[in-house]
Amino acid sequence: MRIHALDAEQALASLNTSAAGIHSSEAARRLAEYGPNHLEEVAHEHLLLRFAQEFTHFFAIILWIGAALAFAAEHFDPGQGMARLGVAIVGVIIINGIFSFWQEYKAERAVAALRQLLPQKVKALRDGEIVEILASELVPGDIVLLEEGDFIAADCRVIDAFGLRVNLSTVTGESLAQARNIEPSAEELPLHAKNIVLAGTSVVSGQGRAVVYATGMRTEFGRIAHLTQTAGETSSPLQREIARLSRIVAGLATGMGVTLFLVGQAIGLPTWENLLFAIGIIVANVPEGLLPTVTLSLAMATQRMARRNALVRHLPAVEALGSTTVICSDKTGTLTQNRMSVHQLWVGGAFLPCADLGMRAHLIDDHRELFVNAALCHNLKEIEEQGRHILHGDPMEIALAEIGRKMAGDLEGFSRLDEIPFDTDRKRMSVLCETPQGRMLYCKGALETVLARCQFIHFDAGLAPLDDAARTRLLAAQDEMAGAGLRVLAFAHRTVSEEGMPEEEQGMVLAGLIGLEDPPRAEVPEAIARCVAAGIRIIMVTGDHPRTALAIARQIGMVRSEQPVVVSGEQLRLMSPTQLQLALDAPEIIFARVAAEQKMRIVEALKNKGEIVAVTGDGVNDAPALKTADIGIAMGIGGTDVAKAAADLILLDDNFASIVAAIEEGRAVFENIRKFLTYILSSNIPELIPYLAFVLFRIPLPLTILQILAVDLGTDMLPALALGAEKPDPAVMTRPPRTRSERLLSWGLIARAYLFLGILEAVAAMGVFFFVLEAGSWHYGDFLDRHQTLYLEATSACLATIVVTQMVNVYLCRHPLHSLLSYGLGGNRYLQIGILAELAVILFILYTPAGNWLFGTAPISGTIWLLATTCAAAMCLLEELRKRWLRQAVQG
């Protein structure tokens, strides 16, 4: 039988223990049987193995094959420069592997963070005596002592309680402290039982004793830890797109290389020359600089996002956030401030906003007993810190005590004598105080339980009998306040004779109602409005009460309709996966009272519907969902270490509005990747055409493999990065998110890069190559030695032309549709740096002995530069005409 369904004696008996605890010898035996009370770590792949995997994916295998063929060619036909090629390709593999490893690497800190949340020592009963032991030594059957401020180290069944209340927010998401008693519970789950306290939570007020029934990974806390550890790593949309792109490009390159190798063999090319040709085809079509460029671009985006208070822990999350279609947001501490405050009063028969108290001084005098009650009726501790008196305890009581002290003024002469503590049956607490007017009883609690103990009510005109009309007004006021998401408490008082406390607090005067709220963050409504404008759906997923959740959702603009769908955790538990997915079709839906695994179910259901899901949260209970989502967003200030370790992105200011800024940057990242992908792929065609011409028309090879690598990893790298640093388009947050089916490598991008820009560059490069050969009196069919000056000048001219056209192309790629004249040459200082770096690299390659030796080049004349620049200008003009035609087609 479930332990929370048993009474205290039966619970102790079920664990073979007593109220005096277990013997030390039995504790040692149980510790050996059940193990230490700490969280175990699921075995993971060794770090070195994960690092090695970065060098064995499909993209890397293609390059390994190319390097192996190059070394084989050098072995069988020395002196052809193939060894240098092999070394260069291996260098590319190493660079890509290191960058990819850092991109994928995530430190496994969630378990360590969970351990840090648990207390190191606890007070327990062993051998009938109170002893202080390590939390890791707790075993089932131990009796632990609970006091205000204690963290709870294991799942326990309460056997003795005096005003005991616990903060469950880190495990269940509850924003309000929950009372605990010793009575058996009919609840299905221990999470909701009033006689259970859970590991990882804390005691807000009161004291008690409890028997440990679950330790370590058997606790609810441990179960959440297990969910977090075993939740599958979710690849981001960008990771999936890059992997798809890598397979397509690598497969295409390999297929073309093998096919044309066979063609070369068929037409009688020498084997090693033909192999060189095949390797050249593969290298020309594989964008070796793509992965490093993507990674560095994401890293630059993380720096921009950090300046906007969003810290990225996982690089692909940058783009994933930009493609988010749904945000599942926690309520407490994310949409709200996670602190209780008095919002509204009902006194004298009318509502009074808290903000108006200062302007209604006469009310303070007329209803002073209400504020005295709020100031005195609590279980808070007052501690002096740095010369200030700070209240510690339940946030709700702190809010009441603060406004009570502020409004009641001087409380000299008031002292507390006795207390009737709060419990879940009474739903109220009372304190007996000595006052200048004599002894007074002050009571606060739920209206339905306080109202039954009152005989009079305080209106502005004075005391009045508490008749049916007054009761109706009170209940209507409570409903209106509760409908606004307020936690409503009733306050009552009466004079007391010298004999002591009156039995069951009868005949009191109802002084009024106070409504408290966990107020929404001021910036959240605007942030939600921007998300809605950007086509992003927001769903509240909270452990709090459905009525509170709905009221907050209305306040912040998340819910606008009259009848939104509100699903409780119990309803969700009974839903099948299909029913849940159908329920998520509702335009406005809120999930309340949900547990950790249920949050995961919601995320998984949304992903099954094709949504790209972001989850926000700050508690331990949020960690599994944060890890399962496409992107997890944790709060940096109020969030637990567990949530931060499981998240991809951390909001440094706990500001929901920072998510909007991060989404804007994320959307810009995807667009920027497309820009530099267009730029990088454009140069593949002028790298490929020379090899096709070489084998089909038997001309000298216009571009060597090392020169191709010089373009892909040398001249193109920094300009591509500059495109990755482009600022977000002002209109980016007015467009809906891209669909999951939208590809990074679209047909439009392929057509523009390969069939237009690439062809123009190839025509220019080949034209300049033949111009140099013609000027050197070369005739078709003449043999040119690869060390001959004319050949070196011609290949250098071909390489220089590709670089010059790419210098122009980087500006053309800044926008797929807008004219270069509309955004000019400025606005991105990295572009100027990239162009200067590109120019420096090509000058090194062409005009230094080291560059000439390494890349097989020779200096070229000014005429060649002029011709290359003219070709680039012509390319710019043709691209501008194409964009203009497209704009007219779109507008038409």
UniProtKB/TrEMBL annotation:
Entry keyword annotation includes Translocase: yes
Annotated compartments: Cell membrane
Listed SMART domains: Cation_ATPase_N
One CC-aspect GO term: plasma membrane
Pfam families associated with the record: Cation_ATPase, Cation_ATPase_C, Cation_ATPase_N, E1-E2_ATPase, Hydrolase_3
Gene3D superfamilies in the cross-refs: Calcium-transporting ATPase, cytoplasmic domain N (3.40.1110.10), Calcium-transporting ATPase, cytoplasmic transduction domain A (2.70.150.10), Calcium-transporting ATPase, transmembrane domain (1.20.1110.10), HAD superfamily/HAD-like (3.40.50.1000)
Main location: membrane
PROSITE patterns tied to this protein: ATPASE_E1_E2 (PS00154)
Superkingdom, taxonomy of origin: Bacteria
Record's protein name: Calcium-transporting ATPase
Organism: Candidatus Accumulibacter cognatus
